[in-house]
Design brief:
Layout: H1 2-10, E1 19-20, H2 38-51, E2 60-61
Parallel strand pairs: 1-2
Protein name: C-factor
GO molecular function: oxidoreductase activity
InterPro entries: Fungal_SecMetab_SDRs, NAD(P)-bd_dom_sf
Length: about 70
């Protein structure tokens, strides 16, 4: 909800705000069994960020850019 509200506040400044689920990543929290390395996760996140447009602001997205239900 914070991201959705922030997206409304920042629209006039043409700043996008999204919430992103980064996937299950090999970190201290995700553990060694997670299927994705930190490097791969960050690479995918950077691609996602580069592909965002004004119509995405306020959404909750997965790593592939698919909208997730709130």
């Amino acid at each position: 909800m914070a991201s959705m509200c922030l997206s409304e506040d920042l629209k006039e400044h043409q700043i996008l705000s999204v919430a992103v689920h980064p996937g299950w990543v090999q970190t201290d929290m995700g553990g060694e069994e997670a299927p994705m390395s930190v490097t791969d996760s960050v690479s995918n996140l950077m691609k996602l960020f580069a592909s965002l447009s004004e119509c995405d602001t306020g959404k909750f997205l997965d790593l592939e850019g698919r909208e997730l239900p709130w």
